[in-house]
Structures are given as structure tokens and as C-alpha cells.
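Can't paste images in this forum, so I'm doing it all in text. The chain is below; anyone willing to post the predicted C-alpha cells underneath?
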Amino acid sequence: MVGLVVGTSLLAACTGGGGESEEAGPWPSSSGSSESAAATSSSAATSAPAVPVMPEEARGAGDAAAVAFVEHWVELVNYAAFSGDATSVRQVTGTDCQVCQSLYASMDGQPLSSTDGAWSTSDLVTRAPAASDPGPADLVVTGDVDISGSESSPFGSLALGVTREDEGWRVAWLLTEQY
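Text version of the structure:
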């Protein structure tokens, strides 16, 4: 399970190849494993967290590695939300993901000072890309998103199209949906 913290909500479709994107409302920023989520939550108001390090499990080429990569991406999004520095998450995201880039731009220089709205992901699974997806990907990782303080659980879902390149996995596109 990967923790997330809400900065702004983004219910969107992100396409590879410069397509259109849709935005609506707030979206999560991220924080890693249960332990790092707790550490990040307790220190967010007083200091920026450390940049998350890519786990060894995310360096492979299979389904499990893609899921581990998405968990790491979530940690990087939380880091960006708490530190106001989205440089690290941009490094693992394709430039064609306009929704991703808009999300990251909203975090630059604007660190969160509150731990309200902690998010977590669960039930992350992979599937083959489909013709209806917003862009090309090697795999699609989907799962539920919960937010602390929300009356609905799960709060919504996410899908990330990921591609495998020489330097590792990259986010190609992002879809989120609030229930």
C-alpha cells in the first residue's frame, strides 16, 4: 500500500503524443510506504521529506516491477507535494503526459504545510493496454485511491500507462476518477 497526500485533485485523462487532456477538481500528491507516509505526515509542516529512492523491485521489466514503479511514482508525487519540488517525479514521467506536467507545475514552489487529505493506493494490478486507453503504453497499472477524512472508501481510482525504456519505467499517461 502506498500513501498519498492531496494537494489538488485532478480527475483527468492524459494522453501520450500531445493529445487533449481533461481536468476537473483536486488530485493527490504522494508519500511512500506506511512507514515513510507516517514519517512524512509527522514532519511535513516542519521540514521537507527526503527524495524517495527507486526501490530495487521497480527496476525489473515484469508486471511486479511495473506495480513497484507506480508505488514509487506515488512516493515521488507526495515528495513533490510536501517539498514543492517536482523535479524527481518529472524525471520518471514522459513529457507528453500533459495532465502529469500540469499536476507537477501546481506543486512547484508550493509545498503543503498540512497533512490533511492523506491518500493511499490499494489493489494495484497490471493489464494489457487497450485501444480505448488515452495513449500508448507497455502496461497499464490500475488501483483504488483512498483519502483520509473522506466519507467514501475507496475515494476513487487511477490508471497509469507505463512504458519500459533503457533507463527504466516511465509514466506515459494518467487517468483518475473520483467515485
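The longest strand covers residues 168-178. Residues 1-46 have pLDDT under 50 and may be disordered.
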